[in-house]
Predict the 3D structure of the following.
Amino acid sequence: MIRPIEVFYSYAHEDESLRDELEKQLALLKRQGIIAGWSDRAIGAGREWAGEINKHLKSAGIILLLVSADFLNSDYIFDVELKRAMVRHEAGEAVVVPVILRPCDWETAVFGKLQALPKHGKAVTTWANRDQAFTDIARGIRKVAEGFQS
């Protein structure tokens, strides 16, 4: 039996509702045992949050950067999560995938060299039908996950 690939969501809390929508679109991948998602909202009471985030950043096979101006504005994301994610990506230990949620100037960021989702890096909130944007993202993540299994 193949173990699900852990997916780490790096996001600004201002984008939580968009992350929730993305998780719904990834439900089939979870049901099929292809992925298992993790975000800081899974941290239980009494747990040390920085340690939990670090543990999951180390164990995730896929790290999703849910990009928006709020994401780019977060010191913790930029100084901690993004640095660790890119080190793991460069070492071939994980795949970092930028997911453009809202329009912002992201192309020159350290992750700007990576292929973004949805297609053409068009922000989810600019699509006439957000479900189509999230479906495109889910299909892209499926392809990344299938790369782990081959």
Observations:
- The CA atoms of residues 25 and 83 lie 27 Å apart.
- The longest strand covers residues 5-11.
